[in-house]
Fold these 2 entries.
Entry 1:
Amino acid sequence: MRGDVRGRRVAVVPDSVVNPPHGVPDLLPRLAADGWGIIALASAELGSSERAAWLDLVVEQVVTFLDDNYDVALVDGEDRAIQAFATKMQEIGRAVPRVLELEAG
Amino acid sequence: MTTVCYLAHCLLNANAKVDEGARCAGVYSPVVELLRRHGCTIRQMPCPELAFGGTRRFWAVREQYDTPAFRAHCKRLAEPVAAQIRADLKRQARVVIVGIDGSPSMGVELTASSAEWGGRPHNPQDEDYPVVPGAGLFTETLLGLLADEEANVRIVGLGQDLFDYDEQAELEKLRHTLSSEGGEVAR
């Protein structure tokens, strides 16, 4: 089609990165500047069954990137949604060991 | 009133684009900056083509994806999105869906469609990609799931998958959609 400038770097992020609460540093510009694309986990506002379905979809997409040797990392390893994602990956025998340490850009 | 924008996956992750189709490294910052200025809540929709066709897929048209399996896949992806949209509408938020015009799955006003496109890849010219009026398969599925709520949702397509993509014109289209009720907010 037209050339391609993808960074081949994908960060799995909690909702708080996409929608930073008031007073919390905005990390999205930092990720963008560093060439990361993101996959956002569902907001905690979503019901548990829908959140589980959303998580399954994220896992499928992340596995697709891992299988094609994209660089995949997590942001905010302490976040509960990120931990749920990591657990789900372990259940299928996969892992995303890299956790990014970010400062707002 | 809160505005919640549901973005096509690739606007936050260009790695999900078809092979040779990524216009930026990852996050498409102009859209994020615009939504931040408007104080919007951002939600990312799943990419229906990525987990189905992988990262090295060719640029297909609607007809190539229009199978019972792909439609079922779109429905599975769209259901949690529709549930979240319903929850947002219930709490009186304004919902804007931002798709990708020219995409066979995420198109809003324009999609890729052709009865002839397919078979052995031969890298045709960009301008040959057959874009026609109409929505993509995922967009169609999501709006179908929203049913009577569809009228309460605004939807706009950014023409990132069009040969003659005009970034400023497309951002203006989004800005117009966001500004049509309520102005920009300082952040």
Entry 2:
Amino acid sequence: MVRETTIDRTQGLHPILIALAAWIVPGAGHLWGGQRGKGLVFLVVLPLMFAVGLALEGRLFPFELSQPLVALAAIADVGIGAPYLAGKALSLGGGTVTAVTYEYGNTFLIVAGLLNLLVVCDAWDLVTGRK
Amino acid sequence: MHSHFLLLIVFAFFVSTVFATLLRDDIAQHIRFGADLFGSFVVGAVVFGWLMFPIPL
């Protein structure tokens, strides 16, 4: 059985570009790598999780380096890619601290971002032939 | 949606779906592993909740 080469999977594109696409659009890396089922699951589930976080009045944290935990939460939030950018553009994610579901919302937002970063790593392994 | 348990269920569903999709390649394995993981999350949360129950606020 002949193993696909990296170039075959990437169709000539550099893996970094594919990883970038995988970050921007959850699941894009897997769709590009030929794993359509997985890609579609990530494309639906991760933005949905992010949307639930916003609906629960979670906050998209700012990159405030003076508060390390806030900065780390911000990095995690950015991990989801385009949904984060869309949320910021629409002025969503201001967070309502007094909301009962505020911390739950934060958790959904942060974990959605972190899971997408994990998906990006998996897509990288896929297109570089490690999987 | 103010039910803590419902939010736990929803969170566990999302996370177990992603992990099952990442770690398994066959659809049947996805479902089996995802269901196991989901159940572990929910049962584990309930168990830890009861373990923390005697601890005063």
